[in-house]
Amino acid sequence: MKKLLFQFDTDLHPSVFDTVVGYDGGADHVIGYGGLTPSTITGLVEGTIFTRAPKDKKNTAIFVGGSDMAAGQALFSAVQNHFFHGFQVSVMLDSNGSNTTAAAAIAKLATSGTLAGKKAVVLAGTGPVGQRAAAMLAKEGAEVSLTARKMERAVQACANMKVRFGVDLTPVEALDNEARAAAIEHANIVFATGAAGVELLTAEQWQHNKNIEMMADANASPPIGIGGTDIMDKGIARHGKIIWGAIGFGGLKLALHRACIAKLFEDNQQVLDAENIFALAKEMA
C-alpha cells in the first residue's frame, strides 16, 4: 500500500522544500494543498481518515507547513479536532522549518556545553525558528532573552511562547547592531535567527566578549547573521567560543525532518510538534 503524505500549507503555494523532504523521508506520494485555513480543511481531513481500513491508516499522514507559525499552529489544531476514536492519521507541524531547525540547532548546542543555568539570547527571535528555539532553550533550563527591532513584537513573541509552552522569556528591543551587541553583553549562549542576508552582529561585537561560550546562526545567505563566523562551522572554536553555522547543524535538521516523516508512517497515532521533535533531535545529535 502506498504511503501518502498530504501537505497542508498555509501559504498559497506549498513549500517545495517540504515536498522534497517528504519524498526523502519515505512518502511514496506527496500531495500538496496551499492557502489552507481551519475553515477549509474539513473535506480534506475527512478524505484522509475515512478511506482506509484501521490497519492501513498508518499509510496516510498529514504535514502542516507554511511561513506563518501562528497560522500553522491553528491549522494543526484544527486538523486534530476532526479526528475521533478509530478515525485519525498521524500529523506533523513544521511551519517554516520552525520545529526541525530550532530543534537541530539547540540539540547541537547542547552537545557543545551545558544549557541549564546559562544566559541565552535569541537575536531577531520573533520568527518561527526564533520563537521555538527560545522556548526549547528555556525548557532546557536556560535564562532566555529574545530580541526584536520593536519592543511590541518581542513582547508578543514572548507571550506566544508563554501560552504555548509555559516558559518565561525576556523581551528586548534591539533596533540595530549596537543594541544587539549590548543585548548579548552578559550572554553565555547566542543564537541568531534573523532574516536571510541580514548581519545582526559584526565580528568585533562578539569576538572579545568573555561571557559568550557558544553561538549558532540559522542564516545561510550572505551576509550571514553573525559576522566572523562561517555557515560551515560545525562546533568549531573561534575566539574561545564554540560556533555552529547554518550548514553545520543543517545536516541534523534535514536528517531530523526525514526521520519525522518516516515516523509518521509507523502508526496512525503520531502527533509531532516541538516537544517530541526536539526529543528526537537530542537522540540523533
Q: Could you provide a short overview of the structure?
A:
With 285 residues, the chain is an alpha/beta fold.
How many angstroms separate the termini? Answer: 32 Å
What is the percentage of strand-forming residues? 15-25%
CATH class of the largest domain: Alpha Beta
**Order of adjacent strands in the largest pleated sheet:** 7-6-5-8-9-11-10
Helix content: 25-40%
Q: How many helices in DSSP terms? A: 9
Could you tell me the radius of gyration in angstroms?
A: 19 Å
Q: How many E-type strands?
A: 12
**Oligomer type:** single chain
CATH superfamily of the largest domain: NAD(P)-binding Rossmann-like Domain
Low-confidence stretches: none
Kindly give the count of domains: 2
Biggest sheet: strands, sense, closure? 7 strands, mixed
Describe the protein in words.
The protein has 285 residues and is an alpha/beta fold. The chain folds into 2 domains: 4-93, Methylene-tetrahydromethanopterin dehydrogenase, N-terminal domain (Rossmann fold), CATH 3.40.50; 98-249, Rossmann fold (3-Layer(aba) Sandwich), CATH 3.40.50. It is 38% helix and 19% strand. The protein contains 9 helices and 12 strands. The chain has helices at 16-24, 42-49, 69-81, 98-112, 128-139, 151-165, 177-183, 246-264, 274-284; strands at residues 4-9, 29-33, 60-65, 90-93, 119-123, 143-148, 170-173, 189-192, 214-217, 234-238, 241-244, 271-272. A 7-stranded mixed β-sheet has the order 7-6-5-8-9-11-10, with helices on both faces. Strands 2-1-3-4-12 form a 5-stranded parallel β-sheet, with helices on both faces. β10 (234-238) and β11 (241-244) form a beta hairpin. α4 packs across α8 (246-264), α5 (128-139) packs across α6 and α8 crosses α9 (274-284). The radius of gyration is 19 Å and the shape is elongated. The mean pLDDT is 97.
